Amino acid sequence: MFRLSCIFQTFADPVRPPKGLTPKKPLKTKDHKNDVLRVDSGYLADQLTLYEYHLYSKITPRECLTYVNTQSGHEVHNLVTFCSTYDKLGGWVKMSILNQDQITKRANTIDHWIKVAERCRANFNFSSMSSIISALSSVVITRLHLTWAHVGRKSQLDALLKHNEPTGGFAGYRNLLSNVDSAVPCVPFITMYLTDLIRTREQFRDEPDRISFIQLQRWHETISLLLKFQHRPPQHIYDEYITAFIQTQLRDAINSADNSWFWAKSQDVQHIELRNADFRNGLEQAGF
């Protein structure tokens, strides 16, 4: 109890962001009809940023420290909810591509998500950006070579992926976040910080009748970095219509961790692409 209270006393209660302001006039968006391609990429990224920030702002220092010993349960509910959105968004991205029947629509969907990721990068929403580009670079999507031949923004995706390398303890993300002023609205990618918390426990364990103050200091430093952007909410105009669409898609998305569905669907799409390619080659050789 002493160990926990020492850390909690060094934190102020996180500031809760105000709810998004309803615009006086609705944003000029067309009916999405549950099709992500019908939602402007900029609007989608902005609403994702507001949605993710709302979840991020609820995380408490106590939850971060409790996470060290347990990664589930009511005591870490807000933290787990925020982290689970990462997998749900990745699942939505992959499903939206694999469920397209036409090769051009699959390519257009990939291009659309790259635009969303770029806008998230501009919004300093590194959580959504990471989820999107991780999904786009997953094997179940990259193996669709004929689809990728029609993608026009591959170079932009490659530029974003440089931030997403897990090597060097996510050095790319650490560098990004270190250059973001704490007064700027930001939704950080927090996986590396959670990993740091667990590693600190392993490296600086308490001994009988002796508290590791190095452990306490490291935990305080890490949690401070993890939560440092909670006080400055994004200034985008809240759009209830698009936010409801996002919530529905995240709710219905297959969990990205369940690779069985994605792998089977990806195989089916790849086989269809190859059959169509062979058919076109046959027609060309026959002079059509």
UniProtKB/TrEMBL annotation:
The keyword Transferase does not apply. It comes from the Eukaryota. GO terms for molecular function: guanyl-nucleotide exchange factor activity. Keywords: Guanine-nucleotide releasing factor. Transmembrane segments: none annotated. PROSITE patterns: RASGEF_CAT. SUPFAM superfamilies: Ras GEF (SSF48366). GO terms for cellular component: plasma membrane. GO terms for biological process: Ras protein signal transduction. Residues 40-266 form the Ras-GEF domain. It holds the Pfam family RasGEF. PANTHER family: CELL DIVISION CONTROL PROTEIN 25 (PTHR23113:SF368), GUANINE NUCLEOTIDE EXCHANGE FACTOR (PTHR23113). This is Ras-GEF domain-containing protein. The lineage of its organism: Eukaryota, Fungi, Dikarya, Basidiomycota, Agaricomycotina.
